[in-house]
Amino acid sequence: MNPRASLGKVAVMLGGRSAEREISLRSGAAVLAALRARGVDAHPFDPAERPLADLASEGYARVFVALHGRGGEDGSLQGALTLMNLPFTGSGVLASALAMDKWRCKLLWQAGGLPIPDYALLDADSDFDAVAARLGLPLFVKPAREGSSIGVIKVKHVGDLADAWRAAARHDPLVLAERCLDGGEYTVAILGEGAGARALPSIRIVPATEFYDYEAKYFRDDTRYLCPSGLDAEREAEMRELALAGYRVLGCRGWARIDFLLDAAGRPYLLEANTAPGMTDHSLVPMAARAAGIEFPDLCLTVLEQCDVG
């Protein structure tokens, strides 16, 4: 008897209509192959091409969410699956929506007493000179509700800030300016829920480009990933605890990835949370899992086995 038969028929949700469709297709294909390698009855399901009602009519028992960006990790899909009473991987509606919205995520982390980089909201009435004076230059401008560094611009001159806002606003009317911290970029993957959640080893990201942009994340082969990250034991433990705190404040479950920036003194600041992390050959959660002794198919199976409804 197949030991995975109890998991039932599994839909690997991939593709979608967001700006991250291409990456989602790659993530989903990798997850699909991994689950099948472990004997799971898994099938691809692209909601851009099929109605969600097919999940019920075709007898799916659970869903592995490998959609990235809007419509996939912003709570909307999670709400639909909850109403359909279908267990799905990752966080529920509220945590997914909060994590996708970088501004509201920051507000919640601030309320929880967690460190975040200083920031400002930008709009047509912003005093761009005052924003630059407060945050310093260079700074980053980003759409609040996009992922994969889509629309992110590094601004070095105050005269370029208004143009950067306009460019980011084409992706999302809610735009952030964020202080640039230059002590390094790190990430911590988390598996589990509540008190049982586990932080995996941190990874340091060293892009060859000026910052960790879309190309550096998914297509360049000269981005360096250090795992072990090179932090001393005390700082590593601190970062993992901060990651777990940020995860729990948002109410995440199943799995997620928490990104960090360090300042010049080596102090970590929470940057953002990803509740449906990438699973491509360039992705960070599989890398951290390998460092913890978890091979990719077993990682996918672990995430799938933690499915829940709502």
CATH architecture of the largest domain: 2-Layer Sandwich
End-to-end span in angstroms?
A: 31 Å
Query: What is the number of helical segments per DSSP (H or I, 4+ residues)?
Result: 11
- Mean pLDDT equals 93
Q: How many separate domains?
A: 3
Order of helices and strands: EHEHEHHHEHEEHEEEEHEHEEHH
Q: Note the main sheet.
A: 6 strands, antiparallel
Radius of gyration, Cα only, in angstroms? Answer: 19 Å
Task: Describe the secondary-structure layout.
Blueprint lengths: L8 E5 L7 H17 L3 E5 L7 H5 L4 E4 L10 H8 L9 H8 L1 H10 L7 E4 L5 H8 L3 E5 L9 E3 L5 H9 L5 E5 L5 E7 L6 E2 L3 E4 L7 H5 L5 E3 L6 H18 L4 E8 L5 E7 L9 H8 L4 H10 L5
Parallel strand pairs: 1-2, 1-3
Antiparallel strand pairs: 4-7, 5-6, 5-7, 8-9, 8-10, 8-12, 10-11, 12-13
Any overview of this molecule?
The chain has three domains: 5-89, 3-Layer(aba) Sandwich (Rossmann fold); 98-115 and 181-305, D-amino Acid Aminotransferase, Chain A, domain 1 (2-Layer Sandwich); 119-179, 2-Layer Sandwich (Dna Ligase, domain 1). 34% of the residues lie in helices and 20% in strands. Helix 1 links the parallel strand 1 (9-13) and strand 2. It has 310 residues and is α+β, with helices and mostly antiparallel strands. Strands 8, 9, 10, 11, 12 and 13 form a six-stranded antiparallel sheet that branches. It has a four-stranded antiparallel sheet with strand order 4-7-5-6, covered by helices on one side. The model has no long low-confidence stretch (mean pLDDT 93). The protein is built from eleven helices and 13 strands. The longest helix has 18 residues, at 233-250. It is globular.
